[in-house]
Write a structure and sequence with these properties.
With 216 residues, the chain is of the alpha+beta class. The protein contains four helices and eleven strands, in the order E-E-E-E-E-H-E-E-E-H-H-E-H-E-E. Helix content is 17%, strand content 26%.
């Protein structure tokens, strides 16, 4: 809103808020309160944690502690060179103004304590927040996660959204590395489907010796 405090200054008015889902490394937060040195990784509810914080690639020590609200975070006494978190709002606060670029290793969006890390789970979370879960084929998203469960990391991902994007575009972008395609079904529901190669059911003959005939 650009109205100050947790809504940022006038320079942030009407800009998209960040949303970090899954686990991301070296994610760059948004400076929302330069007076109190408060930065935000994710703005759509609580996050799981910030496991490491860096300034120009140099790691800070451990967090001084977590504070329940933005107001409590701002009111806290944090020495220079230290930092604290407000996981409930996806924010951190530095004890002194940053000297360089701040980045962090972040375990992201975890509303009601539920940390979603897989592609289907994350797409479902976004659809639910947008109020369109009824228009989502959740069975196909669950099947996608199940298909990736045998991978070394069980198909877990991380994504840091900082720009405007449609749900369909995001779904297609996340599905592609899973060898899957996203679309809208004839019933008007968002779905994903993995590409699979099974037993051939027809022969395409460019010599026109059998149907169906193929010319190019």
């Amino acid at each position: 809103a650009g109205s100050g405090g947790a809504e940022g200054g006038a320079d942030l008015r009407d800009k998209p808020k960040p949303w970090l889902l899954g686990r991301c490394f070296n994610a760059e937060p948004v400076m929302i309160d330069s007076v109190n040195n408060v930065l935000q990784f994710s703005a759509y509810g609580a996050i799981q944690g910030v496991t490491a914080l860096y300034e120009r690639g140099s790691q800070f020590g451990a967090s001084i502690g977590d504070y329940a609200t933005y107001a409590a975070l701002v009111a806290a006494t944090i020495p220079a060179g230290r930092w604290g978190t407000c996981l409930a709002t996806g924010m951190i606060r530095l004890g002194a103004p940053p000297y360089g670029v701040i980045t962090g290793d972040v375990d992201g969006d975890a509303p009601s304590g539920v940390w979603r890390r897989k592609t289907g789970e994350i797409i479902t979370r976004v659809a639910t927040h947008l109020g369109v879960s009824a228009l989502t084929d959740t069975a196909s998203l669950t099947a996608l996660d199940a298909a990736l469960a045998g991978l070394g990391n069980q198909g877990r991902i991380g994504i840091h959204l900082t720009d405007q994007e449609t749900l369909l575009s995001l779904t297609a972008r996340l599905a592609a590395p899973c060898n899957a395609q996203a679309g809208i079904s004839l019933l008007g529901k968002l779905f994903v489907s993995r590409v699979g190669i099974g037993t051939p059911t027809v022969t395409l003959d460019a010599q026109h010796r059998q149907m169906p005939r193929v010319t190019s």
